[in-house]
Design goal:
Helices cover 48% and strands 18% of the residues. The chain has 2 domains: 164 residues, Bordetella uptake gene, domain 1 (D-Maltodextrin-Binding Protein, domain 2); 117 residues, 3-Layer(aba) Sandwich (D-Maltodextrin-Binding Protein, domain 2), CATH 3.40.190. The longest helix is centred in the first third of the chain and has 46 residues. By secondary structure, it is of the alpha/beta class.
């Protein structure tokens, strides 16, 4: 009886151990399956290359102007390179501040980027207390696109054939000559203010709501002068409807090769160019910034994009994101001094 009881007990313990082992193996198997499932779910998300859906390119001005033309030239090729559509979204207002503020507050995931300009980034935050963004703190630079000068144009009724003659006339009649701009704080406005300060003359500023209305009044003789984007002035200059006194770059424009620069016409060192760049909200992952910068530079090297920028009077300036940061530092310092000198403040 004892021997039989011990045998039964031994067999029971063996069976119990066998059951415990099977249970452990089942639990281990379930844990392994759960782990593999979690990994399977996580790997595709982590491995998916950017971008996996369309990217929105916000343009801080209304449709139809040079900004939109530049945006579409970049968007078409950049979309091809990324394998996703680049959707151009025009959000005009307040010299570009509205769009810049919206992008600054967007998710930093690379799916909302900004086409930015010198006036929007280096000027508006200085002039407008309500701009609502800091160009260095709130954005991650992707890279510069290009730069474009303006042409200093006069209505044919102005009895000046050159910059030097205009300065002489303006000194004889302070405040007589009115110059227009697309609005307070735009680069065209500040070009006029810088010109007046450098030449030690007084001009009267007349702000408009956009380049189009200002050019219309210039053609009609309601204002005498304007620093006009070259594409908006080119046809009127070649037809004689406007007189080009000078271009604002350090070298002559390929679109107006016979027009001297303002610098070579009596104001050495004078330069005002509008630079454009792509930005993303601060916090955008560095790999996404590097991918966008790499593709942007490749796009700027294509003949098609170079031709489209040239039509706008622009020159491509590819480079690293850090070059944009340095450019904004220089421009902000430069325009801050002028804004302080003339006491310019916006609402």
């Amino acid at each position: 009886m004892v021997e039989g009881g011990e045998g039964v007990g031994r067999q029971g313990r063996i069976a119990e151990k066998r059951d415990m082992g099977a249970g452990l193996r089942r639990r281990t198997g379930f844990a392994a399956i759960a782990l593999l499932a979690a990994c399977a779910a996580a790997v595709p998300a982590a491995a998916q290359p950017y971008p996996t859906r369309p990217v929105t390119l916000v343009v801080p001005f209304p449709p139809g102007g040079s900004a939109t033309i530049i945006a579409r030239a970049i968007a078409d090729k950049l979309g091809d390179a990324l394998g996703q559509q680049i959707v151009v979204d025009n959000r005009g207002g307040a010299g570009g501040s509205i769009a810049a503020r919206q992008v600054a507050r967007s998710a930093p995931d690379g799916y909302t980027i900004l086409l930015a300009f010198t006036g929007t980034l280096a000027v508006s935050p200085i002039i407008f207390a309500s701009a609502g963004y800091d160009p260095r703190r709130d954005f991650a630079a992707i890279g510069l696109i290009g730069e474009a000068p303006s042409v200093f144009a006069a209505h044919p009724s102005v009895p000046a054939q050159s910059v030097a003659e205009l300065i002489k006339l303006a000194k004889a009649s302070p405040g007589k000559f009115h110059f227009g701009s697309p609005g307070i704080g735009t680069i065209n406005h500040l070009a006029g203010e810088l010109f007046a300060a450098t030449a030690n003359i007084k001009l009267t500023h007349v702000p408009y709501k956009g380049t189009g209305p200002a050019v219309t009044d210039l053609l009609g003789g309601h204002i005498a002068l304007m620093f006009v984007p070259i594409p908006a002035a080119h046809g009127n200059v070649t037809s004689g409807m406007l007189r080009a006194l000078g271009v604002t770059s350090v070298k002559r424009s390929r679109l107006l090769p016979d027009v001297p620069t303002v610098a070579e016409s009596g104001l050495p060192g004078f330069e005002v160019v509008q630079r454009s760049a792509l930005l993303a909200p601060v916090g955008t992952p560095r790999p996404i910034i590097e991918r966008l910068n790499r593709e942007l530079n490749a796009v700027l090297a294509t003949d098609e994009v170079r031709r489209r920028l040239a039509v706008e009077g622009g020159e491509p300036i590819p480079g690293a994101p850090e070059e944009y940061i340095a450019d904004i530092e220089r421009e902000e310092t430069r325009w801050s001094a002028l804004v302080k000198t003339i006491g310019l403040r916006g609402e």
